[in-house]
Specification:
By secondary structure, the protein is α/β, with parallel strands linked by helices. The protein has eleven helices and seven strands.
Length: about 325
């Protein structure tokens, strides 16, 4: 009888719930260290169990406080939860501007919670490029749920669709024109709307507005209509109702193969991203190291050829070597 291949020590450590090993691997993933790839490959068969839930929305809507309240609620239910909080990056160092901020209330010694703040490093769409792999590491580590709080850069964080099966879009009363400007993106990614800070005036009006907008979307073909939930970190209020709305969408995905379709789309997108990432690395190395291709830059600067012609030559050369 053939024996299963042995796991790399770092992979075995994650499966054995070694938090330090998990933290080191996450740092390697963030730094795009190629040496971590054998560990990720070895852990992949041990993933696919944790549900990934996105918490998206503009800055200032209280996403961190909401995640805190959700975390307490989920821990009270006995759920093991990983939290990935994506923070803006410094334009100079590339590091996280807010990543050193203590944002999650964690009880000392609670092994059922793992929090990681990550820099977006300029990645578009509100999530770090490493988020998927970090969520998968938390899955292999044994978390039941992974909450991903997006950067909230003033635009809807549409890339969360590439990571999470359910996306909660958080807004607050009196966003007004900003809601109008974000409307198209909101309805592209929102599975659940959350009007946070419901203790403020105007919360009921904001909830009615969103419910009216959601009601305009057709329901034919079993299409999901996003519910609207009001919450407040004071108390807190509305957290069980918010989580029930998330679970309702998760149950919806489990019907008629919708979850499998969504996962297929996410895997397809991930493969494409990894191919582009490898191509970008090869391109940068080729332009830096190949004398003939470096000379193209000089030709463009001297107006002997245009950038499009230079790009055609580079593409042809890299395709020839592939």
């Amino acid at each position: 009888m053939s024996r299963a291949p042995s796991l790399p020590p770092a992979a075995r450590a994650v499966l054995d719930h070694d938090r330090r090993s998990l933290a080191r691997l996450i740092s390697q993933v963030e730094n795009r260290d190629r040496r971590v790839e054998p560990v990720l490959r070895a852990l992949y068969p041990h993933t696919g169990h944790a549900r990934v839930i996105g918490i998206a929305g503009p800055l200032g809507v209280g996403k961190s406080s909401l995640v805190n309240a959700l975390l307490r609620h989920l821990r009270g239910m006995g759920q093991k939860v990983g939290v990935i909080a994506i923070d803006p990056s410094s334009p100079f160092s590339g590091g996280s501007v807010l990543g050193d901020r203590i944002r999650i209330d964690r009880e000392a010694g609670d092994d059922g919670v793992f929090f990681r703040s990550m820099a977006s490093r300029g990645y578009a769409g509100g999530i770090a490029s490493a988020t998927r792999e970090v969520a998968r590491l938390l899955d292999a580590y044994g978390m039941d749920l992974v909450l991903v709080e997006t950067v909230g850069s003033g635009q809807v964080d549409v890339e969360i669709r590439r990571v999470a099966s359910t996306s909660v879009v958080v807004l607050v009363p009196h966003l007004g024109d900003e809601v109008q400007s974000l409307k198209a993106g909101l309805f592209e990614i929102a599975d659940v709307f959350c009007v946070n800070k419901s203790d403020l005036p105007g919360a009921d009006g904001a909830a009615r507005y969103l419910a009216d907008m959601a009601s305009l979307s057709p329901e034919e073909g079993g299409r999901w209509r996003p519910p609207v939930v009001t919450t407040s970190a004071i108390g807190p209020q509305g957290i069980p109702e918010l989580w029930e709305a998330v679970l309702s969408h998760e149950r919806f995905l489990d019907s008629d193969g919708r979850r499998a379709d969504g996962e297929r789309d996410r895997v397809r997108a991930e493969i494409g991203d990894l191919v582009r990432e490898r191509f970008d690395r090869r391109l940068e190395a080729t332009l830096a190291e190949d004398p003939k291709l470096r000379a193209l830059v000089d030709e463009v600067l001297r107006r002997r050829i245009d950038p499009h012609a230079a790009a055609d030559r580079v593409f042809t050369e890299i395709a020839r070597r592939a």
